[in-house]
Specification:
This protein has about 750 residues and is mainly beta. It contains twelve helices and 30 strands. Among the domains are: about 5-95, membrane protein fhac (Ubiquitin-like (UB roll), Roll); about 100-185, Ubiquitin-like (UB roll), CATH 3.10.20; about 190-270 and about 280-295, membrane protein fhac (Ubiquitin-like (UB roll), Roll), CATH 3.10.20.310. The longest helix has 17 residues, at about 145-160.
Length: about 750
């Protein structure tokens, strides 16, 4: 029976990453999590592999400047409970690191320059190289840094128009003094410029000035996308940008840029031309580019579906989508998608009866690529029908959103866009009785409005679906304008979103996210806006699967509701409500509800009619630690957020007939940083990686309301201030209700990471 590896430990490692060292050797131990063994197959012990691992450890340290490092001692013993399991401990002697003594850039140093040099390196370039090299006097010498600096110098020279640039290295190490002297020999070569740009498709001759036969794509369009012109200055960066621009057309799966270099004199005579002047002081290198294209499939018909669970709006949905990326008529990109949805409200009650409700989605997109260099024209129409996504327990809606605009790509990571968007929203199928609620009538008004939107996005993530390292930034600015009878709002709104990812080890990733937004109204048609300066969909909301996970969707910030109204709707005066409640006991009002109403000294806020009013100022902060082993992952997270910009006034009695408090137009007027207003939450999540993405289940706990008393306390306080019969309630914490149980938690089931 083969021996297995049990515990495998190192001692004495302080200057390098132990996790990285373990990745470089063949002997491994079964992974552990929180001290418990997590077996994914046995790790067998092989003596030959282990001897080579000891050599690999020494080589690993030498590559990082520790030339005297190695395994000083090895402790191996068998486990008493299992004679076929071996525990291994390696004592590592690291020693002193070798540091850089001098760095010499031949071609930049004054002593290395010759008066007859035809193509000297510019002093500004030399200064940039010295400032950016990883190897500098006093730094620890590593082979990786030497290779990166060599590649960096070559790229800088080639980006400055030297296609034949070469960089040679020479290192002299002094083991006694632990010093290394580094020499970079720079050979920039002649200035270079772009020549012909030829496009190749499989089975066809190269095309320089006609339509490609297979994709029917004009060479002019491709040239415009690359932004490379014959005779233009050569640059490796320009080639990389050209390759990315062609891939953005989404017509080719593989794009390869091959360089063909020709030595030419100042008269354009190149290579083997017998008349070429090889000693011409103005000679140059002409670089022809052969762009080899492998077309991908252009049309695609997709069917999909799924289950989405949010504590306020779970649903089952299906989708049919047809996409053609090379549509032959008015546009090159054509997409149409539609699908049915069935919603299952979970907040239904006798006061707000709701049942399963059908809905649907529709999307049409027309895209014309490269109308200008790296610029796409886009026309889109989106529509949805079903429960309101903000307050699904109260109403349903139909929305229509046409838009027209341009998307502009800059390099491989920057995207800019500008669009004119229109939104029309009509509400229908209101829950019983809510049409008379003052909060409802303030929020739900059929609306139509226009606004301009500009966005900037920078995506440097290594993998957008399962990110290990990188950053993501997105900023958006919207400007709405009121037009009598056509557009109801005039406002400005901006929002930013930043995300960062750091790989702490092979299996552990730290992810952070911060977002903030502010909106200011510049004027509104009050008869069509409910007094709000910004439309409901463009206010800020927080809470949910991709936000603050300790709360259901849109339940962070001020919420508003009205009391239970069974007796009021019959026209009873406040002093008659008690008798009314007794009469209705056992019919509309349950005994438990009657007892609750007596406990608070009056009526009680209706959680089934709880309305997320949103706000004009918001911020969110999130951090999570992701641990993956194979396809399974665990996550621990901490979220905070708040939404403000709506200052509720003191509650008033029913007989006052006052309307609900109006929003504050200046979002910064009211900012409250108490612990409760931070809405902190923490929790755990489970992940499973599939071919369609990461399936996740998150469970978040509200840290500021562990006793689930905030909602009830606010209800009691406002009853006291109004003699027990307020017109409306302003609530800062939602009620705790998880499948009918009073717990301060929220469940979220979704596909994809939270951010």
């Amino acid at each position: 029976m083969r021996d297995r590896v049990g515990q495998f430990a190192f001692r004495g490692i302080t200057q390098v990453s132990e996790a990285d060292l373990r990745d470089r050797i063949g002997t491994t131990a079964p992974p552990r999590f929180l001290g418990f063994l997590w077996r994914d197959g046995d790790s067998f012990f092989d003596p030959t592999t282990f001897r080579r691992d000891l050599e690999r450890i020494s080589r690993y340290y030498r590559a990082r400047g520790y030339y005297g490092a190695g395994a000083a001692a090895v402790d191996m013993h068998r486990v008493e409970s299992d004679p076929h399991e071996i525990d291994i401990t390696i004592d590592v002697h690291e020693g002193r690191p070798t540091t850089v003594g001098t760095v010499w850039l031949s071609g930049c140093e004054t002593e290395s320059r010759r008066p007859g040099d035809l193509w000297p390196i510019r002093p500004e370039t030399c200064d940039r190289l010295r400032e950016s090299l990883q190897l500098h006097p006093g730094a620890v010498f590593t082979e990786d840094s030497l290779a990166r600096d060599q590649l960096f110098i070559t790229d800088v020279l080639r980006n400055e128009g030297r296609a034949r640039a070469r960089v040679l290295t020479r290192v002299t190490a002094d083991p006694a003094l632990h010093r290394a002297h580094v020499v970079f020999l720079l050979e920039p070569g002649a200035p270079s410029q772009f020549g012909e740009l030829l496009f190749h498709e499989p089975g066809n001759a190269p095309a320089a000035d006609r339509e490609l036969p297979r994709s029917r794509l004009s060479v002019t369009t491709l040239r415009r996308a690359t932004r490379i012109r014959p005779g233009g200055a050569y640059s490796r960066g320009a080639i990389a940008d050209a390759q990315a621009a062609i891939l953005r057309l989404q017509l080719h799966g593989i794009v390869r840029m091959d360089e063909e270099m020709h030595d030419c004199d100042s008269h354009g005579r190149c290579d083997a031309d017998p008349n070429r002047d090889r000693d011409d002081p103005e000679r140059y290198v002409r670089v022809d580019l052969h762009v080899r294209l492998s077309p991908s499939r252009w049309d695609r018909l997709r069917f999909g579906g799924g289950i989405e669970y949010e504590q306020t709006r779970p649903n089952v949905h299906a989708t049919v989508e047809f996409t053609h990326r090379n549509f032959p008529f008015l546009t090159r990109g054509f997409t149409i998608a539609a699908g049915p949805v069935i919603f299952f409200p979970v907040l239904a009650s006798p006061s707000v009866p709701r049942v399963a409700e059908p809905g649907g989605t529709f999307r049409l997109e027309l895209r014309q690529r490269e109308v200008f260099p790296q610029t796409d024209f886009l026309f889109a129409v989106n529509s949805d029908l079903g429960l309101d996504p903000i307050n699904p327990n109260l109403t349903s809606r139909f929305s229509l959103r046409p838009s027209i605009g341009f998307n502009y790509g800059v390099g491989n990571s920057w995207d800019l866009s500008t669009h004119l968007r229109a939104t029309g929203v009509a509400y229908y199928n209101q829950a019983a009785g809510v049409a008379q609620d003052p909060i409802y009538t303030q929020q739900y008004i059929n609306q139509f409005y226009y606004y301009f939107e500009q966005t900037v996005q920078n995506d440097r993530r290594d993998n957008p679906l399962q990110t290990r390292r990188g950053t993501f930034f997105r900023g958006a600015f919207q400007n709405g304008f009121a037009i009598p009878y056509l557009s109801n709002y005039s406002f400005v709104r901006t929002q930013i979103d930043f995300r960062g990812y750091v790989a702490l080890s092979t299996n552990v990733v730290l992810a952070i996210r911060g977002a903030a937004g502010v909106a200011v109204g510049l004027g509104a048609d009050l008869s069509r806006s409910g007094g709000w300066p910004v439309p409901q969909e463009l206010r800020f909301f927080s809470g949910g699967a991709n936000s603050n996970r300790g709360y259901p969707a849109n339940r962070v910030g001020y919420l508003s509701t009205v009391p239970y109204r069974q007796c009021w709707e019959r026209g009873f005066a406040p002093d008659q409500i008690e008798r009314c409640i007794l009469d209705l006991a056992g019919t509309v009002v349950s005994p438990a509800q009657r007892d609750r109403e007596r406990d608070v000294g009056g009526l009680e806020a209706d959680p089934q009619r709880l309305t997320a009013v949103g706000g004009l100022l918001s911020w969110e902060l999130s951090a999570e630690l992701r641990w993956y082993i194979g396809s399974v992952g665990l996550v621990t997270f901490f979220d905070m957020s708040d939404v403000r910009g709506w200052r509720p006034g003191p509650p008033v009695g029913r007989t006052d007939q006052s309307t609900p408090p109006a929003p504050t137009n200046a979002a910064l007027e009211y900012v409250d940083f108490t612990w409760r207003s931070l809405h902190p939450s923490a929790g755990l999540g489970f992940r499973y990686v599939t071919s369609i993405g990461v399936i996740r289940l998150d469970v978040g706990v509200r840290l500021a309301d562990l006793a689930c008393s905030a909602y009830r306390d606010a209800n009691r306080a406002q009853n006291v201030n109004t003699g027990g019969y307020p017109w409306s309630y302003a609530i800062d914490q939602p009620p705790c209700d998880v499948f009918g149980v009073t717990w301060p938690i929220a469940f979220h089931f979704a596909i994809g990471e939270a951010f």
